[in-house]
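Re-running the complex after MR caught last week's input typo. The corrected sequence lines follow. Everything else is unchanged.
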Amino acid sequence: MITLTLKNAPHVPLEAEALSPDVMATLSNEAIRALPVLLGKRQRRLDDFFHVEGEASDELAIEGDAARIKWIGRGMTRGRISIAGNAGMHLGAHMSGGTIDVSGNASDWVGGEMSGGLIRVAGNVGGQIGAAYRGSHTGMRGGTILVGGTAGLEVGMRMKRGIIAVRGLVRDFAGLQMKGGTIVLGSGAELRTGAWMMRGTILSLRPIPLLPTFSYAATYVPTFVRVYARHLGALGFSIPFEESDGAYRRYTGDTSVPGKGELLVWSPHGA
Amino acid sequence: MLRITGGRVYDPANGVDGVVKDLCIEDGRVVKNVESGRTINASGMMVFPGGVDVHTHVAGGALNFARGLVPENQRVARKFLHGGDRRSGIGGMTPTTFATGYLYAGMGWTTVNEAAVPVLSAKHTHEELHDTPIVDKSCLLLMANNEIVLDLLEAGDLERARHVVAWMISAAKVYGVKAVNPGGVAAWKWGKNASALHESFEGYSSLTPAKIVSGLAQIVDDLQLPHPLHLHCNNLGVPGNVATTIETMQLLEGRRAHLAHLQFHAYGGDSWTTMRSGAAAVAEAFNAHPNLTTDAGAVLFGDAVTITADGPWQHLLYQLTGRKWGNLDVENETGCGIVPYVYKDHNIVNAVQWAVGLELLLLIDDPWRVFLTTDHPNGGCFWRYPEIVQLLMDVDFRKEQIKKLPAAARERIVLADLDRQYSLYEIAIITSAGPARSLGLSRKGHLGAGADADVAIYPEQPDEGGFLFSYPRYVIKAGAVVVEEGDVTAVTEGREFIVQPGYDSGIADFIRPLFEQAYTMSFENYPVEIERLKRPEQITLRPAE
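Corrected-run output:
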């Protein structure tokens, strides 16, 4: 275990791609302290900002308010990062394996273009989580992002595979230009959910405003929801699937693209 | 002073074919002898005149728009870090200005011709060329859809049109005239195209693409410009466009012209499902027209960004790819479309395109009339030229590549039947001597006394994992050693070539009211001040015939 305790939070964003198990797994304490980070355009040492304890481990614990620290866990392939506090932008971007746990909030671009692994944020996150970076064809290609609180705009924009589950309210354009994968909206979403989606599934546990380019297909409980419920249940996120409780209303779209995606909206009996 | 000893020199303009001899350089020029100074031992190496790119897109509004449109390419592009004289930048499909200079020089290319500049964005283009180091530069002015010029051609007033073109060349500080899809871009402003050479197009009643082509070719000849009309024919990229291309060649009989990126104009068939190579027919017609030169516009598999003034074609390409599309309307002068594109070897159309570029280079008999280009970044990036050289020089390598193509594509091409291999001498022609001659740059493309001392020195065997011409050991630009052991070691400033043809001094009074009626800027701000060019060099006009 390597424990990194923030001495004092930087006034401008600190770019710290070095905060990754892949980078630190084989390094001595001294070498970890000397890792480069960028404060604005100036290169600094990691120990200018953190007390570092431990060495040569693929388990990292970050303590303190890291809300201005960007790119934590960028491209990581293994190991675990536990953040006791907040995390900055691009948390776990491009990651392909391992686990990141955040006890507080995280910012925009959580899991941007990730292809595997698990990111769990207990609090709120910003926009563009699991999304494609500007100009890219494809966002998230695999892995799981779980959010305990709310999320911002363009959740899962252009995602192709993987699961994003958000317990709180999600803002506009969830699943924008989605090509595959699954988004679970625990408390619904604001406007234009699934706009331009080609394929994939958006599952909402609350009624949501629908675009006119989605059309009603059926009311049922898809078999796959049981499988997903088991997977997410193991991660502490429950979704309903018992026919005795209700069913999902299925809408297909976005027909303006034209797409073959689906919106599944939970409709409990007696509601 | 500099002496290069022991190298095998390839200097086709002076008939030197792999002769071991010394090359002496003083004050930026090749001289007969020098008394002292540095000596470079080039034993076991090949000495070539610096490469000349007759058709590329490296600066200006359209290219900059393309840079902005493909951030995903920039993120994975080669990085150039700031250090010493070197500025930072990125390579990739649409390199930044400084990186463009380093990449060209790093490959042994020392002169580039930016092939498409509207008067309206000439200032921007010159600013970017300022920041493109090492290489010498020139640019060509888009004239075939300029509505002031078209109106005069429709009225049959060729003489006044000539004065207007000359004034615009002087105003934009350029080197020559480019015609892109004549009439088609003007028609695009009405959502139309101009695909028939002898039919009028939207917005005009009697003017036809054929009249624009022959009118502009005549004007360029009459103005005695060193480089002939640089023509992007109608129907670029369209299956069956062979007919248009050959008809255009017939139109141009008796006048000079350079047909740009001929690969995109040599397709048979009549639809995307029947599209096949038309290179044999185009090459045969071209061989019979000694008044013409051309460049390959070859395609390489992989990422590209297509950038052209040919707006209607780009809209079609966007519909085919379904990805991104950028469209620019350059007021009354031209338009521009940008579409990122991936050439895939398993795609039949792309495979045919790849073959057609090589077929043209192999089927056109006279290497002095066909030059190596990819129409960068349309068919592939300029920094991939060494790959094409390898395909031309090594028939076995070429046949290996052909085997990877889908069977349906192999039936539609003739490349597998061509056994011609380029010699080093011929490579020196198509990469340097030929394009320099076509551009009318008498001090470029050769190593005789008085030539600009632009020299590329390559190892005789390719480096591990590279192609023969990938990594020059030394590059000398205007007498300064700028690349050593494959690295850019010194950054110099290139010159910009311009021409100043004469025109009736009253012509500005004719243009001004038309301009003020239609344009969004003031007429006084329209011309480019000569001070904007850092190192302009005026090239003299051709002698009258």
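None of the earlier attempt is carried over here. Chain B has a mean pLDDT of 96. The two ends of chain B are 39 Å apart (CA to CA).
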